[in-house]
Amino acid sequence: MSPTLVRHQLPHSGSMRCDDPPAWAGARARTRDWAEIQERMLVPLYEAAYDRLGIGPGTRLLGLGCGSGLALLLAAARGAQVSGVDADESRLELARERLTPDGMPEHTRLVSGGLEDAVPEGAAFNVVTAFHPVGCVSTVEGLTASLTAAAGLAERGSAVVLGGWGPVERCATAGVLRVARRLTGPPGGHGAGWWPSSRDDLEELAERAGLRPDGSGRVACPFGYADPASAVRGLLSTGLFDPALEAAEQREVEKELAEALHPHQRADGTVWMPNVFRYLIARTR
């Protein structure tokens, strides 16, 4: 197994703020919050897709928007050869720490460059994943281009997994994420930040990227936190609130978030929000 991670300009839901001195410290803190608090909420989505595809030895997987690498780590634990690309260098650094610990084979190769640099030696990919949920209009064009490019590096008929939010009525976190839209303004339309998924978002994205839909599924991905403070940190780490942080003071954003989370706080102080996520399996042509 030779995990490869490269930095690639993939779309994301919002840019990191750079007005909080020092800027790198804020980005690094959000990266740690993502890795330690938020990223694990999507493990059921990763595992469901991997189970359905039979990920294991012989799998050569490319993770688009691999973040801090948890999904890659789970695939590698099944015996897959993994490569990852991401635009966020701080998350990519943490992914390197996770995927190249002491005891990993010496031939583990971590490079910086374009998608082509992620191709396994002597073989094309046979699985591509884009687990970061489709939920921000600013990502669609860039994600389409990245998927098209990745498909060109995969074998014909390879699986491409797309992830997204499920029906808004089955996602308790939807009401909390609306805080980002309210603070960003103006109301209505598809602006910056989060917006609810529609029924055919993933299919439309696959078709735009020249992929052939080949099945889908739904997975329960509850968001659970030890306390409201952890919930605020976790949600801010997603990037979905970055436009709100640019439009309003961080203190105001955190206050609005805490108020929105209050209905989901349980008697023991924990915060629990049931959600359903959806994945689509598409195939390269």
List the SSEs and their pairings.
Layout lengths: L3 E4 L15 H16 L4 H11 L6 E5 L5 H8 L3 E6 L2 H11 L25 E10 L5 H12 L2 E12 L7 H12 L16 H8 L3 E9 L2 E3 L2 H9 L5 H6 L2 H12 L9 E3 L2 E8 L2
Parallel strand pairs: 1-3, 2-3, 2-4, 4-5
Antiparallel strand pairs: 5-9, 6-9, 7-8
Task: Explain what this protein looks like in three dimensions.
- 37% of the residues lie in helices and 21% in strands.
- It has 285 residues and is α/β, with parallel strands linked by helices.
- The strands form two sheets. The protein has a seven-stranded mixed sheet with strand order 1-3-2-4-5-9-6, sandwiched between helices. A two-stranded antiparallel sheet has the order 7-8.
- The chain is globular.
Outline of this structure?
With 285 residues, this protein is α/β, with parallel strands linked by helices. It is 37% helix and 21% strand. The relative contact order is 0.18.
Q: Percent of residues in helical segments?
A: 25-40%
- Biggest sheet record: 7 strands, mixed
Query: Kindly state the mean pLDDT as a whole number?
Result: 84
Which structural class should the secondary elements be placed in?
alpha/beta
Task: Tell me the span between the first and last alpha carbons.
Answer: 27 Å
The strand count comes to: 9
Low-confidence stretches: 11-23, 105-111
Query: Largest beta sheet: what is the strand line-up?
Result: 1-3-2-4-5-9-6
| Cα shape | globular
The number of helices is: 10
